[in-house]
Specification:
The chain is an all-alpha fold. 68% of the residues lie in helices and 0% in strands. The protein contains nine helices and no strands. Helix 1 runs antiparallel to helix 2, helix 3 runs antiparallel to helix 4 and helix 4 packs across helix 5. It is elongated. The termini are far apart. The relative contact order is 0.07.
């Protein structure tokens, strides 16, 4: 017998697939069902509802409601890593009113620490090169990248690590003493 979490995950995956359907009726039905999951507290569904509202997938575009669901997805238990990353980047890139790059970095760090590879790679880029109000910090970028590696790490993470090390030879000046 499957657990409720597994059943919800399978339903969410099926609905997410339906959102990319060529049939508008399928997308509208998927949005309606996704909204039901979101209203029941599922963070991943909340993010998908925000995406639908933002892009007009199965529903009319509504940026205000999209932002509402995005923020809810960031505080859900567990939070959606996609939402944390998206919300964080919107602050870092100053794409929202009252953007706060430091706050954005905190959200991206939460997504990265939850194992979201894209967040880790983008966070390292931001810290390595600096962006908006964030000063470059090569040591911190290296530590973020090196500490995220494990035996089960994503290939993209290894590629990012190798590229970083190659760009910053000799690497010994970045190692903690």
């Amino acid at each position: 017998m499957q657990s409720t979490d597994q059943t919800t995950s399978l339903r969410l995956a099926s609905l997410t697939r339906d959102l990319v359907s060529c049939d508008e009726r399928n997308r509208a039905n998927a949005y309606r069902d996704m909204l039901e999951l979101a209203e029941n507290g599922d963070g991943k569904a909340m993010f998908q509802v925000a995406r639908c509202l933002n892009q007009g997938i199965g529903v009319d575009t509504d940026i205000t409601r999209a932002d509402h669901w995005l923020r809810l997805a960031c505080i859900a238990k567990p939070a959606s890593t996609d939402a944390l990353f998206t919300y964080g980047m919107s602050h870092v890139l100053k794409q929202r009113a009252g953007a706060d790059p430091v706050k954005g970095i905190q959200y991206i760090e939460r997504a990265a620490s939850a194992g979201y590879v894209k967040a880790t790679i983008e966070l390292v880029k931001i810290v390595e090169h600096g962006m908006t109000d964030i000063k470059p910090d090569l040591r911190r970028a290296y530590r973020l990248l090196a500490s995220s590696l494990s035996e089960k790490s994503d290939k993209a993470l290894y590629a990012a690590y190798v590229g970083f090390v190659e760009r910053h030879q000799p690497i010994t000046n970045l190692l903690d003493s």
